[in-house]
Amino acid sequence: MEGKMYSNGNWVEATNGDRTDVINPATGAIVGSIPAGSRQDVKLSIDAADSAFKSWSKLTAMERSIPLYKAYEMLSERSDEIARIMTLEQGKPLTESRGEVLGAAEFLRWYSEEAKRTYGETIPAAVSNKRAMVIRQPVGVVAAITPWNFPASMITRKVAPALAAGCTVVIKPANYTPLTAVALFEVFEQAGFPPGVVNLVTGKGSEIGTEFLENSKVKKITFTGSTEVGKHLLKGAADQVKRVSMELGGHAPFLVFDDADIDLAVDACILSKFRNTGQTCISANRVYVQDTIIDTFAKKLADRVRTLKIGNGMEDGIEIGPLIDQDALAKVQHQISDAISKGAEIITGGKEWKESSLSGSYYEPTVINHVNETMEISFEETFGPVAPLIVFNTEDEVLQKANNVNYGLAAYAFTNDLSRTYRVAEALEYGIVGMNDPLPSIPQAPFGGWKESGLGREGGHYGMDQYLEMKYISMGLNS
Ligand code: NAP
Q: In principle, which of 9, 165, 342, 390 could form an S-S bond with 467, CB 3.0–4.6 Å?
């Protein structure tokens, strides 16, 4: 697969002609290549987006919703084909890729509808000869940067509300997973977005990011990725006071109280922890289990984890794919050896998984016990298939521990006590709380973090707000 960039309605190579290989993390094989775009290429796309903004922002919301809805239909129709591309470059099992593509399409559908509801407000003025109103208008050219772990949905979660609001977009996908982005842009092209409205640049994040920060035609930066890069972009955006949205890292606590349905909590833990091989920003990263049920929970969880099938996500029945690269594997290995050296015990897994026909980076799905706050795994994002169990005694104690990290993206709790459900949901210092629910993310609801997990929200009508400026208009009347 030889991908190209998409600029001003044309498929283009980098001006310097350079290309970068795309690797299958399951096998190590080259699956394609993409242009290694430079700042000059990014500038051309920004110019195109700036010029297209003048007409796109003037269309009615009804007119903008038409290609968005078409893109939803076309992406849904191509879900099987695009899922295969995703698994080839990202490694997640094919069923998960298919689910992600369909989920990505749902953002297009939802915002094609929400485009029509960008309401303003009238405000009763204090004096009779004035009228006060608020309208909302698109911020302008949006620069979007996305990660590799959800190569389709992280794009549509930004592009759909931005276009619905009347903005134009230049998007830079992660270098690991650009081919899924290319496939999405084939859909955008066929759906009928005018030239320049939505543009794709590929290449090195730091170089493209610098042009996004320094080019004054870019009015807004929306980023999903690590907290480290997010902080760098926040600092850079300050120079021009650019609008920013930041969807950053997480370290989700997963609380299991002794009044919970243990089987439900075990199933939920498998989904939350091992989906996408644990490479999910809202993955359970600390599993707190009440002391009276720790042995039962640990046994049931480990029994389930032992059945998870690991291998190449293109094959039937695979549930755990490769990690994205060797660095990701090394990070998991480091966290495990650090935990073991400080007293943790492996219940199942705990080492690299190797198969002679596959040269990717695999780690066995793992459960470890006796984890405590001194271990790196209890405060550094793992991004791998490891469930660390931490025992607790009281509700107050676990809430204090659960909140004691710099992150605040997602948290989960399992209990059948109604009063505790409210107390715990309200006390957790996280942007998303799943109560007896391991998969809280839906297009209609706000997704985003507290603390160092981010700024702003994606999804729902909150997601539209990120791409709209507010304007207050005061009108003096003749009496
Ligand atoms: P990353 O290293 O921060 O990369 C994310 C994107 O930023 C990539 O497109 C990357 O491009 C680009 N980038 C790298 N350095 C840059 C720079 N100096 N300036 C501008 N852009 C730059 O993160 P990742 O490893 O891809 O993704 C994993 C992280 O994303 C985890 O921390 C995860 O929790 C977080 N995440 C958060 C959410 C959320 O909604 N909160 C969702 C998914 C993932 P290159 O590919 O060219 O390096």
A: 165
